[in-house]
Design goal:
Layout: H1 2-5, H2 15-26, H3 31-34, H4 39-45, E1 46-48, E2 54-56, H5 65-73, H6 86-95, H7 106-109, H8 113-116
Antiparallel strand pairs: 1-2
InterPro entries: CLK_kinases (IPR051175), Kinase-like_dom_sf (IPR011009)
Organism: Durusdinium trenchii
Protein name: Protein kinase domain-containing protein
Amino acid sequence: MELYTGELLFGTHENLEHLALMEKSLGRMSSKILSQATGTPRDKYLVRDRYGEWRLNWPAGAQSASSERHVRNQVPLEKMVDPQHAVFAEFVGRLLTFDKNTRPTAKQALNHRFLKERNLPE
């Protein structure tokens, strides 16, 4: 995706902002995944919502207004590509699936439509 756009996908050096950028582009991380965090990372980056579910401590945990603005301006993965390249964005999105149990293996990824179709738009 970075070669396609010419930009870093998650351009930051701050951990919580990085996680927030990921959610903005790829969708929310499930509470199930977040609940696996323990110790300092959980205490530093996560909070429980009013239903007791884990979520990122964002934007409350943002280090600055510019950090909040940077995340707010991040676009979803599918909007980073021209419409005729949607299959590419879908492929990248599958590779970046948060849940390792549903993320494709390398062998499965090789069977994705993006790599199989010969007449994809340029």
